[in-house]
Specification:
Elements (H helix, E strand, L loop, with lengths): L4 H10 L4 H6 L1 H28 L8 H6 L1
Helix pairs in contact: 1-3
Length: 68
């Protein structure tokens, strides 16, 4: 997976972090964004796997599962 540095800078600025803090800790912020993305991907994969293996005839659509 790849995380763009510019997008991390924009998100941090939108969150209200000062520019000096963003510049000083950009590596840590990028690492955090990468870990969050990996965790979200794992969570979605587990939900899809559970939906696929569900034998209930009335199971919801896949898009309804991922909206949660």
């Amino acid at each position: 997976m790849r995380v763009a540095v510019k997008s991390v800078q924009v998100m941090a600025a939108d969150a209200g972090l000062p520019d000096t803090l963003i510049e000083r800790h950009i590596d840590a912020l990028c690492e955090m964004a990468l870990r969050l993305r990996a965790a979200e991907r794992k969570h979605c994969q587990n939900k899809i796997r559970g939906w696929y293996n569900n034998r209930n005839l009335n199971k919801p659509q896949i898009f309804e599962i991922l909206e949660d």
